[in-house]
Amino acid sequence: MTTGPSAGALTVALDVSAVPSQPVGAGRYIVELAGALARREDCALTLLARRDDGARWAVTAPGARVVAVAPVRRVTRLLYEQARLASVVRGLDAPVVKVHHGPHYTMPRRSKIPCVVTVHDLTFFDHPEWHEPSKVLWFRAAMRYSVAHAQVIICVSEMTAGRLRDVLSPQCPVVVVPHGLDHRRFVAEEASPGADETVLKRLALRRPYVLHLGTLEPRKGIADLVAAFDRFAGDNPGLELVLAGGAGWKAGPVMQSLAGARSRDRIRRLGYVDDDDVPALLRRARAVVYPSLEEGFGLPALEALACAAPLVTTSGTPMAEVAGDSALLVPPGEPLALAQAIETSISDQDLVGRERRRAQGVAIAARYTWQACAELHMAAYHLAAGS
Predict the structure, then answer these.
(1) Is the fold of 10-179+369-385 the same as that of 195-365?
(2) Homologous superfamily of 195-365 in CATH?
(3) How buried is 373 (Cβ within 10 angstroms: 0-12 exposed, 13-18 middle, 19+ buried)?
(4) 156-187: buried (b, 16+ CB within 10 Å) or exposed (e) per residue?
(5) Closest to 32 in 3D by CA, of 315, 275, 345, 321
(6) Does residue 1 have a pLDDT over 70?
(7) What percent of the chain has pLDDT over 90?
(8) Most exposed of 110, 262, 278, 330 (fewest Cβ within 10 Å)?
(9) Which residues fall within 8 angstroms of residue 318, CB to CB, at 6 or more apart?
């Protein structure tokens, strides 16, 4: 229920201009955070949106003030943020903004308003080959500026915070704030008998499947998953590998691995899947597999756990940090170990272990809420404002 801010509410500006029309990853974080903050009485929220995107945010965060001023094109928008956004925020009339939050690595230059910046991962430094060269140059410079000038840095996991300290040595407070979870959607039981089956029929999924949900790009380890599937597909003739998500940057090697797979006739690409269909896909999967090489937080893993899906993911990543013993963990970049873990996960010989992990995963997922995430953000905002 939206009650509106109280008289003493902290006034916060949140930059939502980078969120695409079909949000994933960091975009989903920003959408959920905006909605959770808008429902709080202690936060008077202003959303800084693109000029063509104000209507969406009025629906996403009822009660928030939406200022649709950012340019539509990405390059122009980034330049606008650096050169103009600080003066725009400072010039807003009542309620006057006391804290600005850049939720995607960056903040305005020469801001006279205290700034909080979210850092999702350090891959622009650790793995520049995973990004467009122009983005690497831009975000490396922007992150260095943010670390030097923000009042507070928010990291989405302990691993990201540790890597940030190693690479950029921030002098301001670094606060770890895990993502939340929409517990209205991501639940272990379907909404009504047959509801999940209806979704699967619409998506033409008629056979048991192993699922990967996310953008197809090098960091996700899709080539390793395809190689692993080839290893055990022959022993599981009724099983499909389902890849749900659009193609990302440098998807060429991923597509080559798909084209060269021995079992390519049993690998299904669904493309971008509607948000409302995702829980059914997770619940009905024989196993959900995220062989990611690196992540910032690992929200997809948390969503799978909440839906009681058997989870296989990579050790030494934030996904493992979230899942712990509720998932089968394998070293990144090792298709043979990945194949063995998936086979164990779907085997009836491990039925007791699988059910134990599923129950443990549901319990872990229950600890994460967007309300708790918003509460920790508010603490970070007050720290930045000195209040």
Answers:
(1) yes
(2) Glycogen Phosphorylase B; (3.40.50.2000)
(3) buried
(4) bbebbbebbeebbebebebbebbbbbbeeebb
(5) 275
(6) no
(7) 82
(8) 110
(9) 156, 157, 158, 159, 160, 295, 296, 297, 298
Q: Is the pLDDT of residue 2 over 80?
A: no
Domain ranges of the chain: 10-179+369-385, 195-365
CB count within 10 Å of CB 308 equals 20
When computed from its CA atoms, the radius of gyration of the chain, rounded to whole angstroms, is 21
Compute the distance between CA of residue 153 and CA of residue 165 in angstroms, rounded to an integer. 11
pLDDT-based confidence at 3, cuts 50/70/90? low
The encoded tokens of residue 273 equal 């899947």
**For residue 223, pLDDT beyond 60:** yes
Of 329, 313, 331, 324, nearest in space to 361 by CA: 324
DSSP one-letter code for 326: G
What secondary structure letter does DSSP report for 216?
Answer: B
pLDDT at 255: 85
Nearest to 286, CA basis, from 262, 318, 254, 310: 310
361: exposed, middle or buried (C-beta count within 10 Å: 0-12, 13-18, 19+)?
buried
pLDDT of 4 reads 66
Amino acid symbol at 86 = A
For residue 144, pLDDT beyond 70: yes
pTM over 0.85: yes
In this structure, are residues 326 and 361 in contact, taking their beta carbons and an 8 Å threshold?
A: yes
10-179+369-385 CATH:
3.40.50.2000
